[in-house]
Amino acid sequence: MGADYLDRIRRARVYEVAIESPLDPAPRLSRRLGCEVLLKREDLQPVFSFKLRGAYNKVAGLSAEEAGRGVICASAGNHAQGVALAARRRGIGATVVMPRTTPAIKVEAVASLGAAIELAGDDYDGAFERARTLARERSLTFIHPFDDPEVIAGQGTIGLELLKQQPGPLDAVFVPVGGGGLIGGIGACLKALAPGVRVIGVEPEDAAGMHASLAAGRVVALEHVGLFADGVAVRRVGEETLRLARQCVDEVVLVDTDEICAAIQDIFEDTRSIAEPAGALAVAGLKKWLAAGRATGGRYATVISGANMNFDRLRHVAERADLGQHREAVFAVEIPEHPGSFLRFCEAFAARNVTEFNYRYARADRAQIFVGFALTGGLAEQAALERAIAAAGFPVLDMSHNEMAKLHVRYMVGGAAAGLRHERLFRFEFPERPGALLAFLKAVGTDRNISLFHYRNHGSDYGRVLAGIEVPPPSAADFLQHLAELGYEYVEETQNPAYRIFLGG
Question: pLDDT of 490-504, one tens digit each?
Fold first, then answer.
């Protein structure tokens, strides 16, 4: 396996379009973590992502007959740009199928490289099926984003560069994982030439296809993938990439959204560059791996895989980064509803920097507040603060890890609504396209009351919606069937304590 892929990697044609990306030190992060952190800057490639390596190697190696038919791919961003650039350099036609939910900035970036674009499906899977259909109908050559040996070999050239550029022996390389092409190529290279270097994959907790597949020993199709790190939001890893991972990957670390946002901030502070969420996975994984006590000291390379970030997503990243760095904690606190109690709470914690305070009168005897505090001592201080609030006589619940509270409730604290019966609460991901809300309302039906609705757009392909719906028990099965037919990803939050405390559930 190693020798075969190593030969492919050494023959890969990538430098006609790609640069040998630098391996930059991260001095601020290194000092904080007590080790040497290096950043492999694939975000500096011409299309701001590593993807053009594999795409170009595949397109450049096509026979004249294959190339003459033209190429096609399915992608919402980075792979699309790589294929479009490769096709333009070779002088052949390229068609890119992108989900209808793809933001205009990504569509325009691909169009500027000369590719023909078709929008189809609400997600990558829909676009993939359409691209496969078009490939058959038009005899186009399909360029897979990861499960192709030549694509994998192109990505593997990063491994050769790491070994050439390292200032000394590496202890481990941390690699983002989506479909597995990047870690498959880098892993095959390193295990052939430097088997002592650990190869560690990093996935979001809500899109952990490789982690699940390695545990099962076969490709596992995820029912749902989170979309924050959209560059790695893949339901199925590849058959070939899983085969490589089973031989080359030492372990996979899972990180959450807050940890990814914190890593974006870490990279910015050392480089003044902004990685996309998938591009920051490796740094997030390294931090979590070290925090778990896996090692002290050492030298670690992290692959910064891309920087195709929509500007309007930065607000969400900034909001969540302090939580991910454990520099902020948010709590639900109960105070007596009588004169002076508000003042007493504030006096008890006057020495602390309050980052957020939400309150609304709801009951005659007690009130609930949503409060945030700045931290300087991390998780230990967060736990001590929770104990101090309780010791001061105020019932308290830490909300710092409650996704619904952080995403919705902190912006809509308002108390209970009178007269509601059988309310159930759902958190949805809505595709950002015309008609999405109308389709939702039709699924709910005219015989059910929508009792709560909160929407937030984070500059991505999907908006986040929190909806309360009155669902009498006799109609519950019918209602859930309508939601299943709608096809929007959702999580029921009726039992979430943030709902019960602040919204009256």
Answer: 899 999 998 888 887
Q: 344 φ, ψ to 5°?
A: -60, -40
Q: What is the pLDDT of residues 109-127, one digit of tens each?
A: 899 999 999 999 877 778 8
Evaluate whether 237 touches 213 at the Cβ level (below 8 Å). yes
Report d(CA 505, CA 494) in Å as an integer.
7
Q: Indicate the pLDDT class of residue 286, thresholds 50, 70 and 90.
A: very high
DSSP 474-501: GGHHHHHHHHHHH---EEE-TT-HHHHH
Digit-coded pLDDT (tens) for 31-69: 999 999 999 999 999 999 999 999 999 999 999 999 999
Residue type, 138: R
Alpha-carbon distance of 278 to 264, in angstroms, equals 10
Q: Identify the three-state secondary structure at position 464.
A: strand
Write out the DSSP string of 12-44. Answer: ---TTT-----EEE-HHHHHHHTSEEEEEEGGG
Amino acid at residue number 314:
L
Residues 382-399: b if buried by 16+ CB within 10 A, e if exposed: beebbeebeeeebebbbb
CA distances from 362 to 4, 216, 332, 501 (A): 68, 49, 14, 10
Nearest to 285 by CA among 317, 260, 250, 316: 260
Which residue out of 75, 213, 305, 460 is catalytically annotated?
Answer: 305
- Residues near 339 by Cβ (< 8 Å), separated by ≥ 6? none
51 carries an active-site annotation: yes
- Residue 105's SS3 state is helix
What are the E-state strand segments in 58-147? Answer: 71-74, 94-98, 116-119, 141-142
DSSP per-residue letters across 176-198: E-SSSHHHHHHHHHHHHH-TTSE
Domains within the chain, CATH numbers bracketed: 2-50+149-314 (3.40.50.1100), 52-142 (3.40.50.1100), 326-401 (3.30.70.260), 423-502 (3.40.1020.10)
The single residue listed with the structure tokens 């068609």 is 95
Which entry of 51, 287, 288, 406 is annotated as an active-site residue?
51
Any idea what DSSP says for residue 417?
Answer: P
Task: Name the DSSP class of 312.
Answer: G
